[in-house]
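Structure Section — protein described below
Tokens — whole-number codes for backbone shape
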Amino acid sequence: MTSQGRKARTDRFGARLRSRGASLSPQLKVVADYINENRRTVLGQSALEIAAETGTSDATVIRAVQALGFDGLKDLKGTLAGFLGGIVSSADKMTSTTEQLARDVDASIDFVRAGHMAGIEEVTRPENRRAIAAAIELMRAREGIGIFGIGASAILADYVARLLVRNGRHAYALNRTGIALGEQLLAMRRGDVLIMMGQASAHREGVAALEEARRLDVPMILLTGAASPAFGKQAQVVVKVPRGKSETVPLHGVVLACLEMIVFGLAAAEPERSLRSLERLHVLYEDIRRPPRGN
């Protein structure tokens, strides 16, 4: 469905939030704002899951929904689904984003700044700090590290694999799509650990990577911004990494920051390994810079 098709629909939820939002209590307003900013995510969430995301209770979630004039969560979801229509494409998300920014450079700067600041605040919460620490301990006990990510995350997978190799770890990216991923999966060995960047959808590449990990008894660390991630139940460790509002262009900077937290946390836990690797790397640099013999 195009953005034009979506605009033709009546945004009943938005209209009710504008007319009734000011009368909501602070807790109810937190829930209402979360629903507004994560409309598509909410379609797959229960009242308990929304409560967990907002730091409230399921009863508060229901009260907020009813305060906005809906019979209950099912009624609200039906309204949101009717307005959103089908899957939101990248073009729709860009349209939604640029409409909000109104071609204002300052607004664009503030949009990215606010998204990253809110994301860093979220990813450094106590529960995420514990998850990152658990991820590092799991990685320390494993031989190799595979980093799965496709789409924009494919670039991050390459970068993180390079950082890990520099710090003395056997690491490899799993970032191709289609059958080309099969060649990369041959690198996975029993005794490795898998870091997966994933969201709500169970794409075939993620399923294939996870099936190979299961076959080899390779544990998985999941980085996700989804409230109900596709591979959450299979993960030994889950780190929540927000990527912005579901209706706008996703921001990947916080994912990168989280990955760097994990990489440098691992290096700090294994300083001798990292030092030996970097010293060897500098020897190789000198060898490469040395002019060929006979010249």
Notes: Residues 105-123 form the longest helix (19 residues). The chain has two domains: 3-87, 118-269. The two ends are 64 Å apart (CA to CA). Residues 118-269 form a domain with the Rossmann fold fold (CATH 3.40.50.10490).
